[in-house]
Amino acid sequence: MYKTQIIKSVQMTSQIMGQKRKLDAACFTIPDLNEHRNKYFLEPKYNLIILDGEKLISCLEIYEIETKWKDKTITIGGIGSVMTDSLYRNKGLAKDLLQKALEIMGKEKYDFSLLQTDVEKATHLYGSIGFIPMKKEYTFITKDGKLDRVKAKDTMILPLANPEVTADILNSAETLFVGNGSW
């Protein structure tokens, strides 16, 4: 039986962090690590992990982002680093973690959840729990102070506590600005 844990980032052990780095390297190809670190430097609020014994087999991160939308402060639940060890894929582990993440973000009253992915390849997973293609880009400030953007083809969104704001963002000509950093 697998064990699911919710860990605040400040409580991550060095053992879990080491396993997470190895899983990250196995799941994602990052051509330019320096550029990646310049864009994706935010720290997650929560790490959701699944262990098989002491082995990390699946995880995701939840980021809490406060920003402004039309003079209102909104809170975004960013989902990042969704990954599962190749030997444990297609068992519903990532979906279980995503559902747990939505529970947490719902309790914390996040306005909506946002993630970046290859929408064409990942709609089956994220769409199965309610994410929809955002069909528009969002912008953020990199660590070195430059404005950058996540392309429309790479964004998915899910309304949570404030579906009206989500609808407004989706229907507006304005671009969502998420602040400093992305995830």
Write the layout of secondary structure elements.
Blueprint: E1 3-8, H1 14-27, H2 33-39, E2 46-52, E3 55-69, E4 72-84, H3 93-107, E5 112-116, H4 119-127, E6 132-133, E7 138-141, E8 147-150, E9 155-159, H5 163-171, E10 176-180
Parallel strand pairs: 4-5, 7-10
Antiparallel strand pairs: 1-2, 2-3, 3-4, 5-9, 6-9, 7-8
Describe the model.
It is a single chain. The chain has 183 residues and is of the alpha+beta class. It has a single domain (3-180), classed as Aminopeptidase (3-Layer(aba) Sandwich), CATH 3.40.630. The chain has 5 helices and 10 strands; from the N terminus they run βααβββαβαββββαβ. It has helices spanning 14-27, 33-39, 93-107, 119-127, 163-171; strands at residues 3-8, 46-52, 55-69, 72-84, 112-116, 132-133, 138-141, 147-150, 155-159, 176-180. Strands 1-2-3-4-5-9-6 form a 7-stranded mixed sheet, with helices on both faces. The chain has a 3-stranded mixed sheet with strand order 8-7-10, with no helix packed on it. A hairpin with a 2-residue loop joins strand 2 and strand 3 (55-69). The chain is globular.
